[in-house]
Amino acid sequence: xxxxxxxxxxxxxxxxxxxxxxxxxxxxxxxxxxxxxxxxxxxxxxxxxxxxxxxxxxxxxxxxxxxxxxxxxxxxxxxxxxxxxxxxxxxxxxxxxxxxxxxxxxxxxxxxxxxxxxxxxxxxxxxxxxxxxxxxxxxxxxxxxxxxxxxxxxxxxxxxxxxxxxxxxxxxxxxxxxxxxxxxxxxxxxxxxxxxxxxxxxxxxxxxxxxxxxxxxxxxxxxxx
Length: 225
What we know:
This protein has 225 residues and is α+β, with helices and mostly antiparallel strands.
């Protein structure tokens, strides 16, 4: 009787060790999925665009013209402009998107991913560098020049920065962060880890333990068998 009981306890310990070795992997993967989905759902962007005819040469020429307004050549008498002002002025004058041209090409203020009708433009809003005049991006509507001025939850791309702001001289561009937002992100990350861990344990614990127990021959059949 003692030998049989010792054998049973040994198998139970083995089953517990196997379950413990599998649970961290399962719960860790679960947390990663929750975190990734949360970040994707909460990404937002403030951006401007200029819609042009399907002529890459025209788009590139206008792109360089705006850059020259921001940083005039040395032999020019023109005064430098803040990048968002220069882009908005060009959008009002040249953009073929009547819905946004009158507002300096503004697509939206902190709008979520999927907001833009043009899929290519929407994707570019979360891929191009912050504060740079980018493009042309081709879509079914034509060629787009793009300027992203603020973007949230894209730390892999933007690092600690979330937006551009006007420098003290009124024309220079300054990359800025949002400490309040960073604090919320850290709190959210901790909360997600806690929720993910306990949900993962709840969902995976029983199943993994039963599978481990059967592997160690502690139980003969699983409940669903």
